[in-house]
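Notes from the 1:1 (GR / supervisor)

We went over the backlog. Supervisor wanted to see one worked example end to end before approving the batch request, so GR pasted a single chain during the call. The sequence is below; no edits were made to it. Supervisor asked that the structure be written out right there so they could see what the output format looks like.
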Amino acid sequence: MNCYETLFVVKPTLTDEETAAQIEKIKNVLAKVDAELLAADDMGMRRLAYPVQKNDRGYYTVLFYKANGEAIAEIERNLKINEEIIKFLTVKYVKNKEIAQFDKLVAAANKKPAEEKAPEAAPEAEATEAATEAVAETTEA
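Structure output shown during the call:
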């Protein structure tokens, strides 16, 4: 199985529930073609580089997964026929360096939801880390 990343942009005119339903629909296609979803990164509403179908903005989502080559055709077919998706791009990672970068991206995408759930814990962790570094510096001196 090869490593893939698919980025797609959903129309900005949809409600939050409709956007979530479109993302879930693509995740279901991945499950149907026996692809292993490793991470999903909802990047949120962003400005497009140029207008696409008269839209200046779009809701970006990136899916990281492992799948067979035949599955990509079915995934992209579903992205093409979905009228709510205005753009998509699939990237295949082959070389060892690329796969290492893919693993870093997956780790970052999986780490992101944990940080969003506990934003209060982050300042405490930073303070603890700074205190540990200060103790280490005084010990060395």
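Supervisor's comment: The longest helix spans residues 96-117.
Batch request approved.
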